[in-house]
Each structure stands twice: as structure tokens, then as C-alpha cells.
Specification:
single chain, about 130 residues, alpha+beta
Length: about 130
């Protein structure tokens, strides 16, 4: 009877697994970095976009009212004095995007707005 061949050390296999996992870890890190780059460059483009061709919310608001919609004045934030925090009582804003809530016959309509700078008109998002 021949003696059994000595078992191979599993160390090289573990080293290979370690190399593969660190390699896939690098790939994941590069993928995340690439995604972040694309996201941030897209955000920069959105900030620099010309929104002047979009409808002005003040005018769009008049159209909604004429169609029987009414602004939900309880949707937006208010100052301690009771005055709306934003230009319109139905509007709730983040840094660049706002939402306005309208109601008609139990139906809700949320209008997305582009806030712009403090002196600019709110614009209706496409």
C-alpha cells in the first residue's frame, strides 16, 4: 500500500481568497467613487441650468385656482406670527426644490417647484 500523499496546505487557497476579496473590494470602492462623481457632476449641471423657460409658479397658481383647485394653506411651515415661512402658504421647501399641495373635491395635487435664489420666482418643475 502506498502512503497517502500529504495534504496540500490550504494557505495558498486562503491567500487567493483574500486577494480576490480585496480585489472585489477595490472594484466596489471604485464603482462607488465613480457613481459619486457622476451624481455630483449631474447636480452641478442642475444647479447651473437655465430655468427661465419654465412656467412661473405665481401664474400657474392662478390657473389652478381658476380650475377649482385650492391651495392647502396647512401644508407649508409658518412663522410664530402665523405668516407663511415661504412665499405661499401651500409651499414646503428644501434648499432648491419645493412642493406645493393643492386640493379639489378630495383629490390632492402636489406641484414640484424649483426654488431658485431669494429674489427669483419659483418655477414649476417639468
Amino acid at each position: 500500500m502506498k502512503p497517502a500523499a500529504p495534504a496540500r496546505s490550504p494557505a495558498p487557497q486562503r491567500g487567493l481568497d483574500k486577494m480576490n476579496s480585496s480585489s472585489s473590494g477595490r472594484r466596489a470602492m471604485l464603482a462607488c467613487a465613480g457613481s459619486l462623481f457622476v451624481f455630483l457632476s449631474g447636480a452641478a449641471v442642475a444647479q447651473d441650468a437655465d430655468f427661465s423657460q419654465l412656467p412661473i409658479y405665481r401664474e400657474f397658481r392662478d390657473q389652478l385656482t381658476a380650475q377649482g383647485w385650492r391651495p392647502d394653506a396647512g401644508f407649508g411651515l409658518k412663522l410664530p406670527s402665523g405668516k407663511p415661512l415661504y412665499r405661499f402658504p401651500e409651499v414646503l421647501c428644501g434648499p432648491k426644490i419645493c412642493h406645493a399641495r393643492w386640493v379639489r373635491s378630495g383629490t390632492e395635487k402636489i406641484v414640484t417647484l424649483i426654488r431658485g435664489d431669494l429674489t427669483e420666482e419659483y418655477r414649476v418643475s417639468p
